[in-house]
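Task 17 of the worksheet. Students: predict the tertiary structure of the chain below and write it out as structure tokens. Keep your answer in the requested format; marks are given for formatting as well as content.
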Amino acid sequence: MSQTIGKTRLAYSRAWHHVSLASPSCPSLGRLASRIAILLQGKHKPIWDPSTDCGDYVVATSCHDMLITGKKKEQKLYYKQTTRPGALKSMNMESMMRKWGGGEVLKRAVRGMLPKNRLRDKRLDRLKVFEGEAHPYKANLVKLDGRTRRIEPEVKTEVIKQMSV
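Model answer:
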């Protein structure tokens, strides 16, 4: 018997999930980041394996409306090192959101929740963040806030007319 039962190309196909951070039911930053990390790893799929990359794409919109609890905007610090002695720079969350937007804060939170291995950067590349509602991935989305969208096939009427002539 084959050892690869169920590990077909169709099983590894990637779905696109949409998360709108402007919705009132959206969780806070940490809870949202952990849910996104599960989708990026593919842990919600029955074929999940730690050594394979079977995760999905995630599109996060309205990152400027992200819910952050407590005093994290003023107190949470992000560090950057240029590998030169004495060049450790720190920036709080509020100034990071002003400079690079809420998408960078969300990406750093998700990055910290992904496993520290060589698949982390590939998984993080599948997270697409946008400050507003507009994004170029509308045609790819299959799951909108957890609900499956029905995809209607487009029928080319011109081709059908030419074939009947």
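Marker's comment: Residues 29-41 form the longest helix (13 residues). The longest strand covers residues 16-20.
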